[in-house]
Specification:
mainly alpha; 7 helices
Length: 156
């Protein structure tokens, strides 16, 4: 019986550590995704002529004209990562980045398998944030925290 209690205690501590680390892990994922996508957006802005050329000749975004696709791609890579980093409207930002990532894979037929692995990793991390939220260390959590009056009235 004593071994069972020790096992339960150890597992409870293990769970407590994992739960305590959730905000840090969510922040680390947000920082990583911010860096990947924001730097890609900056690269597109740095040489807009090359960006337009790539969207005209290399990337084949369905339906959209190349110039519109370039603006939307660069815009998505710059705006959504900032929202995600701040954790403000995090699920919306994650959904937007997921679409940007998916369109990148669909529209560039020359992706090597190693590059596809990167996109799959990013999709999994983005999905994690979409389904689990941006964590306690985010503007979403701060802005949606119950006010003391709501706690007293039992509305939280």
């Amino acid at each position: 019986m004593e071994n069972t209690n020790l096992a339960r205690l150890l597992y409870a501590r293990f769970e407590a550590v994992a739960i305590a680390l959730q905000p840090l892990v969510a922040l680390a994922v947000r920082l990583y995704l911010f860096r990947v996508f924001f730097l890609s957006g900056l690269l597109k802005l740095r040489d807009w002529g090359s960006t337009i050329y790539l969207f005209t000749s290399e990337y084949h975004v369905p339906v959209l004209p190349p110039a519109v696709a370039a603006v939307m791609g660069a815009g998505g890579e710059l705006i959504f990562p900032i929202l995600l980093l701040l954790g403000w409207r995090g699920r919306f930002a994650a959904a937007g980045l997921f679409v940007v990532n998916l369109v990148a894979v669909i529209s560039y037929p020359g992706l090597e398998p190693v590059m596809i692995k990167d996109h799959v990793l990013w999709a999994v991390l983005i999905s994690y944030l979409f389904f689990h939220g941006t964590g306690r260390w985010s503007l979403d959590a701060l802005l949606n925290r119950p006010k003391p009056a709501e706690l007293r009235e039992g509305r939280a």
